[in-house]
Amino acid sequence: PLVGVTELLRKAEAGGYAVGAFNCNNMEIVQAITAAAEAENAPVIMQASQGAIKYAGIDYITTMARLAAEQTSVPVALHLDHGTSFEQVVQCVRSGFTSVMIDGSKLSLAENIKLTKRVLDVARAVGVSVEAELGKIGGTEDDITVSERDAFFTDPEEAKIFVSETGVDSLAIAIGTAHGQYKGTPKLDLERLEKIKSLVGIPIVLHGSSGVPDDAIRAAIGLGVRKVNIDTNIREAFTEAARKVLEANPREIDPRKMLGPAREAAINIIREKIRVFGSDNKA
Ligand code: G3H
Ligand code: 13P
Ligand code: ZN
Ligand code: NA
Known about the structure:
Structural class: alpha/beta
Distance between the termini: 11 Å
CATH architecture: Alpha-Beta Barrel
Number of strands: 11
Bound molecules: glyceraldehyde-3-phosphate, 1,3-dihydroxyacetonephosphate, zinc ion, sodium ion
Radius of gyration: 18 Å
CATH class: Alpha Beta
Largest sheet: 8 strands, parallel, barrel
Strand content: 15-25%
């Protein structure tokens, strides 16, 4: 069934594991997320990025996600990923999202607090949980130097102020991960994570988690990460499987012959991630 995120993260906090938050790019990936969750008996978060909303439209995503969730025995939440404005959050809540992220990380601390509080006011009224972001999570185009780390990474003291002033439900932080594929191996600032967790107490969200080695992910979960975002690894598995079909049979014209195996590949990678996050058999 379709559920909220607050309860999922509360249980993850108590159980010391993380819930996988998987980006849905299309129908096959929506189906793959719930199929994988069902197979692993795991709670799961399905999330829609700005790109997904542009591609499919908010109502298509909500309708597909709701149907997939209704057909699934394990808890499935629908989350807005990197929400850009108060208006977009309201649109998604109206459409049926059960959780939202408001990404004010480009704003000043004061402006980020103000925007996040405004979103919390409406979200609280309808029982939707809110994730905010503090610090700048890199894109792979950014080459971060050591001196830039302190400027980009989440400041623990700021995080403490941010969480106590907003009362936000979960916090996305910058500790060395980046969206997309990595050039080398990312190195996470786990000390910073530990400090932040000790000061804020709430569930921490790790973005850009595709390409982060499993043991680093497990270490981050050990220090308080309760939601792990994965998009790129699903895209890679999905597209590689589709490419294989087309390479083996360049004259194939049936989209289902290409997207069926792609969906299977997505299910497999999502199941692997669920086990790394320790959320298998936690439904
Ligand atoms: O937010 C990060 C997603 O992984 C990528 O988003 O679907 O807008 O390209 P996109
Ligand atoms: P990746 O694409 O690196 O997995 O990042 C996903 C993400 O953080 C979505 O918000
Ligand atoms: Zn992200
Ligand atoms: Na990544």
